[in-house]
Amino acid sequence: MGMKKVLLSLLHDVVMISLGLFVMIALKKLMPLTKRGGFCNDFSIRYPSKVELIPSSVETTVFGLLIIFTVTIVEFLRCLDQRDWEYIVPSKYIVMVFRIEKSLVSMIFHGLILASIVFFGKMFVGRLRPNFIRICNTIPCDVSGYQDFECRKYDEAAFDARLSFPSGHAAIAWYAAAYIVLYVQYGVRCWPLVKALIEVAVISMAWFSSLCRITQNQHHPSDVVCSALLGLLFALLAYWNTSHSLPLPSSDENKAPVQRSRAPVHMINQ
């Protein structure tokens, strides 16, 4: 790959990441919140408020590090394929770094677009969280009909209480888990039990994160289910776009010829 192609590839990656950041920042600055009302006797929004067990920053950091670690290890194993143990060509490592960079850029770009779509859904729908009444501390209203809830204090917590659908935690968790599963399943040829252990572990982490959002009264079950499906869809898109556009870690032209000693035919027949 020439220097010009390398620079163009890096420029493409910078533009795509910048575009994803621009979309997310623009939505947060310009998207208005839809303030939905409800019924005062609606018990689905009268659950008690609980301390958040897994903050979004912690979940994003953990899954992000897991993806970086997984992509790096898988590409290194691809570089050290069984056919190449005897002869390691330096150019293979260059291709390995290229594949890692492209995979992570694709993952980040699709993750930014996913986060933007989730934020748009939250602001556009404005669904009340299960603990809305407790957090909002609404002004007493008539239980006989539909009401436009007015919070006693408009702070960050009251604003966040109107952002139930979709669940950002569930979307990010299942996006990361599915991306890791796809990368491990189709990138590693050996160690099936280790692959199964990794896949079960990350799926369990995403499942636990999703359940926590329900048990902590942060989201309705339908919020979590729809968000998980959205995360799975974006993981498929991210992996598909990456796997069909990258070169193999090694090619026949980069391999050194393997010298094998062969016994004469008459010796084999004896």
UniProtKB/TrEMBL annotation:
Species for this entry: Parasacculina yatsui
Chief place where the protein resides: membrane
Protein origin, superkingdom: Eukaryota
Compartments reported by the entry: Membrane
Ranges where the Phosphatidic acid phosphatase type 2/haloperoxidase domain occurs: 107-239
Membrane association type: Multi-pass membrane protein
Protein name: Istmp-39
InterPro entries xref list: PAP-like, PAP2/HPO, PAP2/HPO_sf
Region of interest (Disordered), residue spans: 249-270
Similarity section: Belongs to the PA-phosphatase related phosphoesterase family.
Residues spanning the membrane: 6-27, 53-77, 104-125
Entry's Gene Ontology BP terms: phospholipid dephosphorylation; phospholipid metabolic process; signal transduction
MF-aspect GO terms: phosphatidate phosphatase activity
Pfam family for this entry, one: PAP2
Gene Ontology terms: cellular component: plasma membrane
Keywords: Membrane, Transmembrane, Transmembrane helix
